[in-house]
# Entry
Amino acid sequence: MSLVRVDDVSFGYARDRRILDAVSLDITAGDTIGLVGESGSGKTTLLRLLLGLQRPASGSISFDGTPLDPGNAAFMRSFRRQVQVVFQDPYSSLDPRQTVSSIVAEPLRSLRVPGDHTQMVADALASVGLDRDAARRYPHQFSGGQRQRIAIARAIVPSPKLLLADEAVSALDLTTRTRIVDLLRRLGAGMSLVFVSHDIGVVAALCRRIVILEKGRIVEAGETVAVLANPQHPYTQRLLASVPRLKSKDTSP
Ligand SMILES: Nc1ncnc2c1ncn2[C@@H]1O[C@H](COP(=O)(O)OP(=O)(O)OP(=O)(O)O)[C@@H](O)[C@H]1O
# Structure
């Protein structure tokens, strides 16, 4: 069964301008999906709908078989725990006045997750490769790559079923980017992942499936290897033609 089902969803921030147009997408448990498209094609907007931050103008989104509905408070609380997000900028996404431990524990507090929060934070930091000492320090004491590890720890600490990543490695240098992609690949074993990126090389390294968005419409979707080897839609062909060199394991920009 689908973990998330996006069914014929359209959306616009203003009535007269459609940003997403008849988008349908199934995300199964453990799936890794790369969402690719030019700037302004609606990738972040689709993530906002998947997070329940925006509602479709038409169509529906369901999670574990239940439609997202702000009126269903108990379901939305559980949904907020199950779907977490990592944003692009590791410098602005972490509160500089809080210790790492407090930052990573934030979803546990706000979602009122039962259990030993100190232990859960330590486990999350360990799974992203940061030692226990990191918990007592502040974000400015870490590099960009380490900060993104902290942001990933914060996202995985409530054990979500779906992790959304919006250009989560774009701000990092190449070596750090490769390490974070490896980390996401490892963590992805227990979660579904939707990974927004301009970088088709990173998507090729990380995502089993790829979805190509053009002006709010899905123009092509399928197994990443198959789509990259034999793109059918002219827009996909143009996107791939603009990538100078692409090998299946290459994570360079
Ligand atoms: N809060 C908003 N209010 C009005 N329009 C918005 C808002 N957020 C985004 N848009 C518009 O929606 C369109 C899609 O934006 P979106 O951020 O989803 O694209 P994107 O594919 O993620 O782009 P990028 O790769 O540059 O991040 C753009 O034309 C943008 O100007």
Summary: The chain has nine helices and ten strands. Confidence is low (pLDDT under 50) at residues 247-253. The first strand starts at residue 2 and ends at 11.
